[in-house]
TrEMBL record:
GO MF term (any one): L-amino acid transmembrane transporter activity
A cellular component term, taken from the record's GO annotations: membrane
Keywords: Membrane, Transmembrane, Transmembrane helix
Major subcellular site: membrane
Classification via Pfam families: Aa_trans
Transmembrane segments: 12-31, 98-121, 127-153, 174-196, 208-230, 242-261, 327-351, 371-390, 411-430, 436-457, 477-497
Domain of life per record: Eukaryota
Domain Amino acid transporter transmembrane: 92-493
The protein's name in its UniProt record: Amino acid transporter transmembrane domain-containing protein
Bilayer topology: Multi-pass membrane protein
């Protein structure tokens, strides 16, 4: 009875948090980014439809977003942090448009792995409480890194990630973020393949086809993905990016219906459909489990989930009247909304299945569950149409870094087939997509979110002849964030590897 009361009380706390606390924390995170500007006394044209929204487990920024060096916007001499500076550039997008764009870039299939991240350190419902705290804190830190990149663009008068790095850190080391982007995008494509294999296998089962994962992924790759990746013009796929956002919103609602409707508990409608390892399972390790080093697995997943940082220069350049305070409001609002969605979906998934939360939470739901079947279909279609965009970014990144100048159709097609085959083979060999996201997030993700923005900010401030005391002090704050990211990355990567050994 004590355990029952404990579970009931924990679920009540989570329900109250989901209805009020998440949005309170989102409001606080919005204010924290905005106020940080005011407390320090702060102050290439793209149409909204053409602004790149990198699909992904929020993990697949196209290499072009970094490698491209658009025309530098005029540099405003006034200090971005001490005055309400005039706008820089000729952007035409409103704050609302860019908030929608950025949320769409952040919230991807990566959120579907977060329940497993919670299960990595706890198996009682109360484990969701510190997990919500981590989701919020990591979201705020990720938003801060995103904000730093745009402010670096303002100080250096640049409008692309690579140009901002060159102007702040230096030309000789510009290969570091370039390689990081390419590798991160390859990890994104790998995660896509793994999710597609598992999702289509469930969809085939719903249709009465008991295919193995190998047969499913090989067929989907050969018949669907390869022809799409060989397309010479991918512009026709861009409108389908909206499908991913709608699919995530639908999935969140469907997960809520199944949790509150108790369809997977005891004598619930679908409770007996699942094998033992996917049935709801709860133990006694609750909130205290957060002090276990296994928590770093969730942190690594979050570093992947919040990844959208190579959009920062273009978000800043596209914003109409793009003063630093207006840019910060866009960033704060976008990350606040994303924090709310991540917290909601991660909690609902974990509170439904507990310790048996799958690396892809959709796997936990019955193939007879029509409500979740629609979700699987929406996620699968979204990834299918997003896949070529991320894949071509990875392929072109490899070509750029290898300095291949003669990009004939034969070269492009050959690399496409070879790279896609390698990714598919890896997807069939690695057992759990949550490992890919945790490892990639702990290594490349932490570098891109915490370390690189801090180094860029430090370099930009040092090169400013009129840098303020507030800016120089913030360098210390940014570097603290970088060292924290380094520590979390080492621990997370270690635990991720140990989890599959």
């Amino acid at each position: 009875m004590g355990l029952v009361r404990h579970i009931t009380r924990s679920r009540l706390v989570i329900a109250i948090f989901l209805s009020t606390g998440v949005y309170t924390s989102c409001a606080l995170s919005t204010r924290s980014l905005s106020v940080s500007s005011s407390s320090l006394r702060s102050a290439s044209t793209l149409q909204p439809s053409s602004l790149p929204v990198y699909p992904a487990c929020s993990v697949a920024p196209l290499y072009a977003s970094v490698a491209s060096s658009g025309k530098d916007v005029p540099r405003e001499k006034a200090d971005a942090l001490t005055t309400n500076v005039a706008s820089v550039g000729t952007g035409t997008a409103s704050s609302t448009q860019l908030i929608f764009t950025l949320v769409k870039a952040i919230v991807g299939a990566g959120v579907l792995t977060l329940p497993a991240g919670i299960a990595s350190f706890g198996n009682a419902p109360s484990a969701a409480i510190p997990a919500l705290g981590l989701i919020t804190v990591i979201g705020i830190l990720s938003g801060y890194g995103f904000a730093l990149i745009g402010r670096v663009c303002h100080l250096t008068g640049t409008s692309s990630y690579r140009e901002a790095w060159k102007a702040s850190v230096g030309e000789p080391s510009s290969w570091i973020p370039a390689w990081s982007v390419t590798l991160k995008t390859i990890f994104a494509v790998l995660a896509y393949s793994m999710i597609l294999g598992e999702t289509f296998q469930s969809l085939f089962l719903t249709a009465g086809l008991a295919w193995s994962k190998t047969a499913v992924l090989t067929t989907i790759t050969s018949v669907v993905l390869l022809p799409l990746c060989l397309l010479k013009n991918l512009s026709s796929l861009a409108p389908f990016s909206l499908l991913g956002s709608l699919g995530m919103l639908y999935t969140a609602v469907a997960m809520g219906i199944r949790y509150f409707g108790k369809a997977y508990v005891g004598s619930g409608k679908f409770a007996q459909d699942l094998p033992f390892n996917l049935q709801p399972a709860f133990g006694t390790i609750g909130a205290s489990g957060v002090f276990n080093t296994q928590t770093s697995i969730l942190v690594g997943m979050l570093s992947t989930a919040y990844m959208a940082h190579f959009n920062a220069p273009r978000i800043y350049a596209e914003l109409e009247n793009n003063t630093v305070p207006r840019y910060l409001k866009v960033v704060a609002s976008s990350f606040a909304i994303s924090i709310g969605l991540f917290a909601t979906m991660a909690s609902l998934g974990f509170l439904t299945f507990g310790a048996h939360s799958s690396g892809l939470i959709l796997n936990n739901y019955s193939v007879r569950d029509t409500l979740m079947g629609i979700s699987r279909l929406a996620v699968a279609l979204s990834i299918v149409f997003s896949y070529p965009l991320a894949f071509v970014g990875a392929r072109d990144g490899v070509l750029d870094l290898l300095q291949v100048q003669n990009r004939t159709p034969t070269v492009l097609n050959g690399l496409t087939v070879g790279l896609l085959a390698a990714v598919t083979a890896a997807a069939l060999s690695i057992p759990d997509v949550s490992f890919v996201l945790a490892f990639a997030g702990s290594t490349l993700g932490n570098a891109l979110i915490y370390i690189f923005p801090a180094l860029m900010w430090r370099g930009a401030v040092r090169k400013q002849p009129n840098s303020t005391t507030g800016q120089r002090r913030e360098v210390k704050l940014a570097m603290m964030s970088a060292f924290a990211g380094l520590g979390m990355g080492i621990m997370g990567a270690t635990k991720a590897v140990q989890s599959i050994l």
